[in-house]
């Protein structure tokens, strides 16, 4: 009997050492950096579509303020809105501008970016920085869940903050201090039109 040799085309290939957590975070960071650079490109591509006068791209975040690998692209005509036919033309146009594998959520509206100011206490057993980071994420998640034409409610902001472990929100900070609560906006914010959509970012959420 002849000697049987392994088929070189069937030999296993591509083996590698297990990826460390640090290497994975570095690799994920390269993807996130690509998304950041791609936002302006997406907006510019959308503006090439006749009828689009406004385009704004923002990275989608989870409740912890971390990127989830997709982008929301807001587009609108001169009246601040876009119908399904206009959105279809935008979607076809941005194929050449988006990153491969990138999910782009198209919204036919012009966002109104909101600055949020909060004042609350933190239980002594919790880390202040971690609680503030969680509060930012909760507020961003609430505001960015609103649909076009919906009111930005102070009660909704308060509920988002109260959901964060370690927050002291309902009592007074002191007889001469600012009461705990939502400092800004001081009252519910109504959209200027049915196509207005409220949005915020972690950079726009601060504490006093």
Query: What is the residue-averaged pLDDT?
Result: 80
Helix content: 25-40%
Write down the Rg.
23 Å
Query: What profile does the largest beta sheet have?
Result: 3 strands, mixed
Q: Order of helices and strands, N to C?
A: HEEHEEEEHHEEEE
Choose one word for the global shape.
flat
Beta-strand level of the residues, as a percent range? 15-25%
Number of helices: 4
Got a strand count?
10
Write up what this structure looks like.
- The protein is of the alpha/beta class.
- It contains 4 helices and 10 strands.
- The strands form 4 sheets. It has a 3-stranded mixed sheet with strand order 1-2-3, with helices on both faces. It has a 3-stranded mixed sheet with strand order 8-5-10, with helices on one face. A two-stranded parallel sheet has the order 4-9.
- α3 packs across α4 (154-162).
- The radius of gyration is 23 Å and the shape is flat.
- It starts with 20 loop residues before the first helix and ends with a strand.
Q: Main traits of this protein?
A:
3-stranded mixed sheet; single chain; 30% helix; alpha/beta
């Amino acid at each position: 009997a002849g000697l049987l040799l392994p088929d070189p085309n069937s030999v296993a290939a591509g083996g590698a050492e297990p990826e460390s957590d640090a290497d994975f975070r570095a690799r994920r960071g390269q993807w996130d950096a690509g998304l950041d650079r791609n936002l302006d490109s997406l907006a510019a591509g959308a503006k090439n579509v006749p009828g689009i006068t406004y385009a704004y791209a923002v990275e989608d975040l989870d409740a912890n303020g971390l990127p989830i690998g997709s982008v929301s692209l807001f587009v609108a005509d001169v009246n601040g809105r876009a119908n399904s036919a206009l959105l279809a033309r935008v979607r076809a146009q941005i194929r050449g501008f988006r990153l491969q594998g990138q999910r782009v959520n198209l919204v036919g509206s012009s966002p109104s970016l909101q600055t949020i100011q909060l004042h609350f206490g933190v239980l002594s057993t919790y880390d202040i920085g971690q609680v503030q980071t969680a509060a930012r994420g909760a507020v961003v998640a609430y505001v960015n869940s609103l649909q076009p034409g919906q009111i930005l409610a102070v009660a909704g902001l308060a509920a988002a903050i109260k959901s964060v472990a370690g927050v002291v929100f309902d009592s007074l900070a002191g007889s001469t201090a600012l009461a705990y609560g939502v400092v800004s906006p001081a009252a519910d914010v109504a959209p200027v039109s049915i196509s207005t959509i409220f949005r915020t970012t972690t950079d726009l959420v601060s504490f006093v």
